[in-house]
Amino acid sequence: MDDLIERLRAGLPAEALITDPDVTVSYGRDMAGFCAAGTPAVVVLPRTVEQVRHVMRTATALRVPVVPQGARTGLSGAANASDGCIVLSLLRMDRILEISPVDRIAVVEPGVVNADLSRAVGELGLAYPPDPSSWESCTIGGNIGTASGGLCCVKYGVTAEYVLGLEVVLADGRLLNTGRRTAKGVAGYDLTRLFVGSEGSLGIVVKAVLALRPKPPAQLVLGAEFPSAAAACAAICAVMERGHTPSLLELMDRTTVRAVNATTGMGLPETTEALLLCAFDTPDPAADLAAVGELCRAAGATEVVPADTPAESELLLQARRSALPALESLSTATMIDDVCVPRSRLGEMIEGTARIAEKYGLTIGVCAHAGDGNTHPVVCFDQHDPEESRRARESFDAIMALGLELGGTITGEHGVGVLKKEWLARELGPVGLEMQRGIKAAFDPLNILNPGKLF
Amino acid sequence: MDDLIERLRAGLPAEALITDPDVTVSYGRDMAGFCAAGTPAVVVLPRTVEQVRHVMRTATALRVPVVPQGARTGLSGAANASDGCIVLSLLRMDRILEISPVDRIAVVEPGVVNADLSRAVGELGLAYPPDPSSWESCTIGGNIGTASGGLCCVKYGVTAEYVLGLEVVLADGRLLNTGRRTAKGVAGYDLTRLFVGSEGSLGIVVKAVLALRPKPPAQLVLGAEFPSAAAACAAICAVMERGHTPSLLELMDRTTVRAVNATTGMGLPETTEALLLCAFDTPDPAADLAAVGELCRAAGATEVVPADTPAESELLLQARRSALPALESLSTATMIDDVCVPRSRLGEMIEGTARIAEKYGLTIGVCAHAGDGNTHPVVCFDQHDPEESRRARESFDAIMALGLELGGTITGEHGVGVLKKEWLARELGPVGLEMQRGIKAAFDPLNILNPGKLF
User: Fold this and answer.
1) Using one digit for the tens of pLDDT, what is the confidence trace for A309-324?
2) What is the pLDDT of residue B308?
3) CATH number belonging to domain A96-214
4) Is the Cβ pair A244, B214 closer than 8 Å?
5) ipTM above 0.85, yes or no
6) Which of A186, A241, A283 shows the shortest C-beta gap to B147?
7) Record: fold of A331-440
């Protein structure tokens, strides 16, 4: 270990190296529960590509595992340290290198905070759509590593669709350029997409070319209250089947609505079994909301409230934004699941989750990126009660099993990390897993890049 | 070889096996010029996944190369046979298995013709946007193999963005499922995207889950004539910089305009140095066209003609559609290049191509998916003149060199095949190439899947 520190020091400024265990311990984990985390040997915070290359060359020479980290807002333990590892934090590589309105691209370092980029391109009339809930603190590098989603995905898609090209430091310190700066390109296998969502297991992203869009008009939001989750899901299916393209289509179940009421005093009726939020950023959002309002009423909505102004819309969105904190206030701990099903199966997913909550005797609130069929069941439990904690973990697993049964995936946007490793194997099957491992071996033959994550 | 045929016959119906050399020779090549093609040992036309698996198991057992084929409309020789290979034609696996308007997906076999799918989903109010020029004959499997583009890409993106999941027969006959039926999903490395554009070198796609969109309104087209290509490119940059989202933005240079005039009697003024076509499928396309018309005039357009009706629009699009046949009529042979540059460099690309035409003493017409920066310089030459043919090949290469110099890629949508193998190595560099080869080896360790293509 002394050798490791000495070697690292040879290519890094003193301030880029943290060895004090009282400090390094704070880099131990991301925001996921139920995930093992080890103690890093050292934390490095490089500012340049050359410094990252030095770190990786050192790691390869000494066979030391490297765990790349952004803002550690992840929810699957993918950024958790392993014992004796080098934590490679990209937070100080935080420059926006270029924004081109004509080419509609931005070139950034991995430590740029999502919201900082959004604001910078916004000033030029552009948008970088991916908007995970943690957008005020999460980094673009982390977004790329975990292939993050967000509220906008139903219209604008996920991070993967906005990454055009990458500069990557490989396990042995060599530099790889993937992709392009152009709108299109098909030269060879799409390595760029391979890195998106690879959770730091294939290489260290040190630069990214991102696609931008013209900034859309402000969105207008509608809230609709339903007497059952099934009715709300029928409305969602009708909206999508009729060819609407909402910029947001979110669902909160009864448990979530009540928790939000309790913590914010929002005064939603206690009879509400499901609250649907739908938004449009089209040229005539009021007309689109009127059409959706009709579909909601036809599906049985008891109340349909379209906002007239962006300010009223903002109030409605507050309810959605306060959902997670509200559910977290119900117990000493929560686990947030991330099952995505075909949207035609959303109703079954939500009803099935309610049955799972009953079976395990737990409170499970569901909020969902409903337009995408991406549910976030939040399992509330007392972490100081081992038996209840066990039931929480079992219900968490039962939710994933249900998702797979309905033709879905165990993770719509949070990733696998260490939390869902066993479930990834179940979703992919042995052939799929073998192919994934083959790719890992091609990029990281010594298995030093975030080992023990994914599979 | 007798052994090969016997073994194949054991798992295929008689009508799925062609051994007559007079017939197999017609499966020798796609539509690319300047590309070597060998003589297949046998052509197989399976109808089921199980039959494809039998073919691949046989190929693996006997170490016989397999060249997968769709409609052979490709332009890079990726579907060209190699000597003694099995040509695996997927044309008879042509069923549309499912269309779901709620989930906005279609599930198809690889031999489905692009236009057939478009029409089938169109009847349900949906669209499958990717629209390569060959859409009336090319197959979805071929589109996936080559990651095809088309006219719509500037707004709707390329094939890659519409492939959600795949069923693939691996080199050894095992079955691999990738991706999902859901709108989102991040379970493991994105193998789906890896297969898109892999030119049949990683596995045989036997089923695809495709994303659909609501059918957009009919588009309205504007034509604008410019006194120089530079002025037209300035207009294109202005359109994109101002945040417009055209559904089509195409450019034809002087050579192309004159060729179209000559073959169609379209009567465009001979003074036109560049013709720009721009379309919108927005709720108010006339207003969008008016705004673009202003930008064209400000950039120096001598004539701006917005269509008032879809029928008039169709007439304007005829000019674009007749561009390639018109250029082909100028000589005994043509080579179509496919260089994509950042759209801010499009003017330099077109001017540079004109200089290359002059230097090599050849006619080179350029039509371009201008909104994407994707140019198709068409080199016209006499194939019976060896010296002119040599100059044609050299100018073709010079165009790619220029594209790379301008920060572009050697192929925006046609792929690498055998035509651009050397250039792929140049674009990717040694590290990139090594990583690509590592992936190939992980999927196809015996190198029997379309060997000799890509790299």
Assistant:
1) 888 888 889 889 899 9
2) 87
3) 3.30.465.10
4) yes
5) yes
6) A186
7) Alpha-Beta Plaits (3.30.70)
